Amino acid sequence: MTSRLDWIQQELDGLKEAGLYNHIRTLSSPQGAWLVVDGKRVLNFCSNNYLGLANDPRMVDAARKIVDKYGVGPAAVRSIAGTMDLHLELERRMAKFKGVEAAISLQSGFCANLATVPVLVGKEDVIFSDELNHASIIDGSRLSGAKIIRFAHANPADLEAQINAAKGSYRRALAITDGVFSMDGDVAPLDKIYEVTSKHDVMLMVDDAHGEGVLGAGGRGIVDHFHLHGKVDVEIGTLSKAFGVVGGVVAGSPLIVEWLQQRGRPFLFSSAATPPDVAACIAAIDILEGSTELVDRLWENTRYFKAEMKNLGFDTGHSTTPITPIMLGEAPLAHEFSRELYNEGIFAMALGFPTVPRGKARIRVMISAAHSRDDLDKGLEIFARVGRKLSVIH
Ligand code: PMP
């Protein structure tokens, strides 16, 4: 039988032949240092649960208590009947945590980028975008209708050259960079980028999805890390990684927040975050403001794991964050490595082209404060075994 949808099957077959098909694994356990993946208990080196908050009893308790009071659903978009005092409390607390004047919460980090870029620039404008920026920045940029000019990765000199080349051709300009790049774990040179954007009067937006809860004092993020308070126009954050829940945040000036309330389409046309999500996010801020213990442990684990992997002879790339790529070269080797790790009891993702450039395939290890020293040692022992078996190390 033929149908108007047969082309989809052909596309899917094409993905499988090209080795680009996403095989989605199923978890039947909470997030943590260990997971049950497809029925097998494995050490978790895949999640963005940097601080181990996704299943922290204090977070679970906050979510449980608010369900008794406010139920589970917002039942409306924020601008109609979906704004609860809880949302406003999260926004106030987040602004204070990040040292900015105002913040607005959205349903996810992806939504935050989709909402923000189109309210800042339009058809007559230009976006200068790091060539490795996240998909949600790219999609938000496309939605805006502005001209998109890519600059070389983490390269302020190229950003300046692109700004100079575009001079006079636009009304407004916005430069956007990820804070921490999710494939390599490198940090954007935001101080140098700011020098360029302020000199040329270009608005500056940073997506701190992998920097929040990780960089800066007590996990306050990349702006705090570089002491750029009051200088970066817009900070995008996610509550889905270090904060352990789900949600997005836009932080900056009260003007930007008010403008998003009026014009941000995911704010206006998509339902608000649920009460338990919001309450858990507030609990995460309580935890981070109360102690640096989790952030300190995350960094201790990160330093230990990276140093030991280097001692074993692995190439861990240029990462300076908990995102730890294990560089392997060609994609088939990375996939075989990942399969062997899973067989031995480690869940760690292989990344190949087109997610990363050809010849730069890797295993990506995500370190968490939830890992104990024993967990990391177990991981190192298995990496060493698989590395020797596949002749990656000797
Ligand atoms: N920005 C970056 C840089 C990300 O890595 C991600 C998540 N992969 C997002 C935004 C989207 O965040 P969320 O999962 O909260 O939608």
UniProtKB/TrEMBL annotation:
Keyword Transferase attached: yes
Cofactor(s) needed for function: pyridoxal 5'-phosphate
Record InterPro entries: Aminotrans_II_pyridoxalP_BS, Aminotransferase_I/II_large, AON_synthase_class-II, AONS_Archaea/Firmicutes, PyrdxlP-dep_Trfase, PyrdxlP-dep_Trfase_major, PyrdxlP-dep_Trfase_small
Transmembrane segments: none
Residue stretches making up the Aminotransferase class I/classII large domain: 41-381
Keyword field contains Transferase: yes
Cited PROSITE patterns: AA_TRANSFER_CLASS_2
GO molecular function, one term: pyridoxal phosphate binding
Entries under Pfam families matching the protein: Aminotran_1_2
Top-level taxon in the UniProt lineage: Bacteria
Record-linked CDD domains: KBL_like
Keywords: Acyltransferase, Pyridoxal phosphate, Transferase
Family that this chain belongs to: Belongs to the class-II pyridoxal-phosphate-dependent aminotransferase family.
Subunit architecture: Homodimer.
Classification via NCBIfam families: gly_Cac_T_rel, PRK06939.1
UniProt protein name: Pyridoxal phosphate-dependent acyltransferase, putative
